[in-house]
Each structure stands twice: as structure tokens, then as C-alpha cells.
Write a structure and sequence with these properties.
Elements (H helix, E strand, L loop, with lengths): L17 H13 L15 H15 L3 E7 L6 H14 L3 E6 L12 H11 L12 H13 L12 H9 L8 H16 L3 H11 L6 H8 L10 H14 L5 E6 L2 H5 L4 H19 L6 E7 L2 H4 L9 H7 L16 E3 L5 H15 L11 H15 L2 H4 L2 H16 L5 H6 L27
Parallel strand pairs: 1-4, 1-5, 2-3, 3-4
Helix pairs in contact: 1-18, 2-3, 6-7, 7-8, 15-18
């Protein structure tokens, strides 16, 4: 039997800002994850969250980590990624996030890798810039830290070049570090001379906005760009850079990894992307990456499919294999793969309580339906959706918010009469149709 949450322990009156309340409810109505206010609706995932928190501490101490978050559509993967993002920025880490699409990949000619990198940089977030666009402020922090350094007695050692060189010393062995340092020098000079045009071109370069080396050379005097073939190198450099700017490290969240499994009809294209993933796994597990964490999220088939998933690539299959002793309910989150379990009946009940709490603006005195309404709604959802109710609670949550909306706007109608007319439909399966083979994915062939 479900025990009702204690209103005195969990739902004491708090003031939820109107903006936060509306953002949460609008997102839930649409079946998407809100970007703010997650603490008001978070339930479950305790062990998974603790495992990722340990990763954040490792990254903050200069280490690296890689995780694969698996779950079916609507199971809470995106919510979990956003939760980790919230926790990471609170720990003074920088977070970049993007989705894999047919045009945004880890590896793909014709600008597909560069497009993914550009989207990651666009969505760069910190504690003060949670919605993205934080690269500008991070550069400003870097310059401020240079200006605030105490000048050495030797005037030569106090020069601009020496200051930046000293900061870059710890990454001088990294691929492309020289070009990266040159770009930082250019930005510093532009900052000192208030040259906004040149500063904007540096930002454009760092966001992979230059498509040709000749264009970058004409605007900035550098003969390199961030392109399809070096995005991982520059993500690792960016991790070092954000530490130099005063942050603890970089988290790279990449969602919708199932696109690589389901949408790429070319085995050559899949293998190329999987080789990039293998490189990331090796770098993170073997200590060749610093201050960076990669979190990949996708449906179970992304890994489990024996013909198209990561397990079809032998080198990755051995590294991502389950612990053979993790059986009979034993908990083990030490490996790279985390499989999100279904929410329990109690957790779903608590989730609906929290949604009602948010709907009331954080004031239990303003609840528009009684506890009985939640219990009745859950029973009806269970009868309609069956096991899918626990596996993918997205539709039940959407329906519950719609139910509260109707009660709120029809105060003269009893809630139980309204509930009878609320439709709770099963989540349609999101099928992915393989796309035609791209020309750039073909191996060059000559007679």
C-alpha cells in the first residue's frame, strides 16, 4: 500500500518563483524536461546520482570519466542529464550539451563533426549562465585572472606572451595546443585594445565558426580551424582552458546516441563514430584525459543491438561489458554503463505529489485536488497503460498536468467528474527510419 508523503517533511511551504513554476508546468505539458526548477520535481535515481556525483568530484580533482546512460524513450534520460548538469554547474564545472542528429555526429565528413562541436559550444553553461552562451564570460574570466596576477620582478616575465605561455604550459603536449594558445593571445590583445570585431572573430573560431583555413587566416592570421577531424582534441583543450579560467573542469553531455544505431544505414559511418567513442573511453579510463567527463545517453539498443550497437564493435564490447557478478539485485555503478531502472510505484506517487506542489506555487494550502485524486489518477493510469506506466511515465505526467489545468479552470465541476474525461494514452514508439547512405560516408573506391 502506498504511503502518502508527509506534507510536514517534504512539502513545507516555499515560494516557487512564478517564472520557475510556469517553466516547469509548460515543459511537463509538452512532455519535455524543464531546464530550471528540477529540484522541485526530482524523485528516485539516488544510486545513479551518487555515482555521477563521484565522477564530478573526480573531474574536479583533475581526473576524467565516461558514462553511458541507457533507457527507453520517456524513461527519464534527458531529465537525468539535466539534473547532472544542474549539480555540475553548482560544483563550478562547465557543461556543454548537444543531441546527435543526422547532421551532428562525433565523426562525419561535410561538417557533421564540426556542427556537433559548434552546438556544444553554443550550449556552454555555467552557474551564472545556465541557459548556454557562457563562452564569452569564461574568456572574460581568463583575461581577468591574467590581469590580476602579480607582476614578476623581471619585466620580460611580466609580458603578455609569458603570462599566457605559463598558463598553457600544462597543455603544451596536447594536440593543437599551440594553435589554441595563439588564439588566446589574439583575444588578449583584442581585449586590451577594445577591438570588438577581432574578439568576435576569436569567439567565432572557438565555436568552430570558420569553415576554411584560408578564411581563418584572413581574419585572425591563424592557419588552422576546428574541423570534423579534431573536435575531441579541442574538447580536451577546452577542459584545460576552463580550469585556467577558474572553473573545475568540463562536462560533455551528448543525448540521442541511438541515432547512430538506428539512422545510419552505413556500417562504415557507424564504425567511424564508434572508433571516436572508443578513443574517448580509452582516454578517460587510461588517464590520457584530464578535467573532463563525457556522458552519452541513448536507448538500450544503442549499446545492446548485436548488429548495429556498440556491442557489435568488439573493442567497445569488452570495455562496456556488464560485471558478471552484478546479479540478483546487486547494485554496481562502478562501470561506464548505467541503465536507468523503472520508477517504483512509490516514486511515481511522489512525483505526482511534487507536480501538485509546484502547481500550487509551493503552498500546500492552495492544492486544487485532494490526496484521493492522485491515488485515483494513478489507478486509472495503471489500468490504461499497464507496465508502460512504470517504464515511461512521460504520458502519465502530461495527463496529470492537463488534469490539474482542467480542475483549475473549471472550479464548479468536481475533480472526479473531470478525471473521467481525461485521456491517458500510450506513448507512441519513436521509430527511426534509416537514412540514405551519405556520399561522404562511402570509402573512396577506384578501379
Amino acid at each position: 500500500m502506498i504511503q502518502s508523503p508527509s506534507s510536514t517533511d517534504l512539502f513545507q511551504q516555499v515560494e516557487i518563483p512564478r517564472k520557475t513554476r510556469e517553466a516547469i508546468l509548460s515543459s511537463l505539458r509538452s512532455g519535455v524536461v524543464p531546464h530550471i526548477g528540477l529540484k522541485y520535481i526530482q524523485v528516485g535515481r539516488y544510486h545513479e546520482t551518487q555515482a555521477l556525483l563521484k565522477d564530478l568530484d573526480t573531474i574536479s580533482d583533475g581526473g576524467a570519466s565516461v558514462r553511458f546512460i541507457l533507457g527507453q524513450y520517456g524513461s527519464g534520460k534527458t531529465f537525468f542529464l539535466n539534473l547532472i548538469k544542474t549539480l555540475a554547474v553548482e560544483k563550478k564545472l562547465v557543461v556543454v550539451n548537444a543531441d546527435i542528429t543526422n547532421d551532428h555526429r562525433l565523426c562525419g565528413a561535410g561538417g557533421k563533426g564540426r556542427a556537433l562541436y559548434a552546438h556544444l559550444m553554443k550550449n556552454m553553461s555555467t552557474r551564472s549562465s545556465r541557459e548556454g552562451g557562457a563562452l564569452d564570460s569564461i574568456l572574460e574570466n581568463f583575461i581577468s585572472s591574467l590581469n590580476n596576477e602579480e607582476n614578476d620582478k623581471d619585466s620580460i616575465n611580466s609580458s603578455l606572451q609569458y603570462k599566457i605561455k605559463r598558463r598553457i604550459t600544462n597543455i603544451c603536449t596536447q594536440v593543437n595546443a599551440y594553435d589554441f594558445a595563439s588564439i588566446l593571445n589574439i583575444y588578449y590583445l583584442a581585449y586590451q585594445s577594445n577591438n570588438d570585431y577581432r574578439k568576435n572573430n576569436v569567439l567565432r573560431w572557438l565555436r568552430a565558426g570558420f569553415t576554411t583555413k584560408s578564411e581563418a587566416n584572413a581574419e585572425l592570421g591563424v592557419k588552422s580551424t576546428i574541423d570534423d577531424h579534431n573536435i575531441i582534441d579541442y574538447l580536451k583543450l577546452m577542459a584545460h582552458f576552463v580550469r585556467m579560467a577558474g572553473y573545475k573542469g568540463l562536462i560533455v553531455n551528448i543525448d540521442e546516441m541511438g541515432v547512430l544505431t538506428n539512422n545510419l544505414s552505413s556500417a562504415i559511418a557507424r564504425k567511424a563514430n564508434y572508433e571516436i567513442i572508443l578513443r574517448i573511453v580509452n582516454d578517460c579510463l587510461q588517464g590520457d584525459a584530464e578535467s573532463i567527463g563525457f556522458i552519452f545517453a541513448g536507448v538500450d539498443e544503442f549499446i545492446d543491438d548485436p548488429k548495429r550497437g556498440l556491442y557489435s564493435y568488439e573493442a567497445l564490447a569488452s570495455r562496456l561489458a556488464r560485471n558478471p557478478y552484478s546479479r540478483d539485485g546487486l547494485i554496481n555503478y562502478s562501470g561506464p554503463v548505467i541503465r536507468l531502472k523503472n520508477l517504483t510505484l512509490e516514486e511515481i506517487h511522489l512525483l505526482l505529489w511534487r507536480i501538485r506542489f509546484v502547481f500550487a506555487g509551493g503552498d500546500p494550502q492552495k492544492y486544487i485536488v485532494p490526496d484521493e485524486a492522485i491515488t485515483t489518477f494513478m489507478a486509472r493510469s495503471n489500468n490504461t497503460l499497464g507496465s508502460e506506466y512504470y517504464r515511461t511515465p512521460r504520458e502519465a505526467v502530461k495527463s496529470f498536468v492537463s488534469f490539474l489545468d482542467l480542475v483549475d479552470q473549471n472550479k464548479d465541476v468536481p475533480w472526479n467528474d473531470i478525471l473521467k474525461n481525461v485521456k491517458i494514452e500510450k506513448t507512441p514508439l519513436e521509430e527511426s527510419t534509416p537514412t540514405p547512405l551519405d556520399d561522404d560516408d562511402l570509402t573512396p573506391f577506384r578501379l
